[in-house]
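Researcher: Structure for this, please.
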Amino acid sequence: MCVTCGCSDGAQARVTRVEHTHSEHTHSHPHAEAVSTATHTHTLADGTVMTHTHVDSASHSHTTHSHSTHTDHKPHTHTHHHHHHNGEGQSSAHAHSQVHGTTVTLEQNILSKNDLIAAQNRGWFKGQQITALNLVSSPGAGKTTLLVKTIQDLQSEIPIAVIEGDQETAQDAERIAATGCPTIQVNTGTGCHLEASMVERGLEALNPPNHSLLLIENVGNLVCPALFDLGEKAKVAMLSVTEGEDKPIKYPHMFRASQVMVLTKIDLLPYVSFDVERCLAYARQVNPELKIFQVSAVSGEGLAKWYGWLRSVCDRPDTVSP
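Model: Predicted structure, token format:
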């Protein structure tokens, strides 16, 4: 599982506010050792790099600086070599037992820490009456395209903010920010998923208003994001008709962990070999309670039902008791 594969070992997540201006379009290309000249950076104790971008440099007197003296407290493993004189087989079995025990403890520690922060996020969302949705899918399923269309159609009636997760670049975040929607880019580096702590730090920079809809676009991956609670109200698994109808049974944990499935790109159905009914049957086989929408962000088909559900789950001011 992801917590033992080492994909996050040494990874440094970068959190950047992406701004859109009409007078000048700036495109940032994050690299491991490069930051925008309009930013200052803090390296936190767990290795996360916080990057703050300021549009009005006159109102801030900070200089670029970093804190690198903190001790890294991330869980880690040690390889213990035990030499026994009573047979190589017994020594090998003992070593395997030691490593297995350490691995299980590491998994528990990482997930427990994440769940604690996720619970804090969830409590904060509840207090601010913010509806947070965790959008998950494989790469290229159409998350960003549907996000942009949804924001364009709903932002006049629902305050919307976005946390965008990718390993590198801010390309998707720039597309979203171009709609005028407040957007935070989280680059996970070698990490293959967002974690609750990354969302927590993104929220500090984003500061979404009360009664808003927070859309969290996770890193494209149908495996690891299923394991990590971010504090969201619901996981929304997206699957495109270009991927194959058997995805729900090939990646059952993701669809089992989700409350909603959105089948995207249905405008392409006449041009691809995709059995919609079989796909839906597989999805319900894995998760009978799954709510399913079929949409096209290009033709607009199915969007009315998707938007209706979003309105129904939002904690709107007009539905809050005095």
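Researcher: Any notable elements?
Model: The longest strand covers residues 131-137. Residues 23-40, 42-86, 317-322 have pLDDT under 50 and may be disordered.
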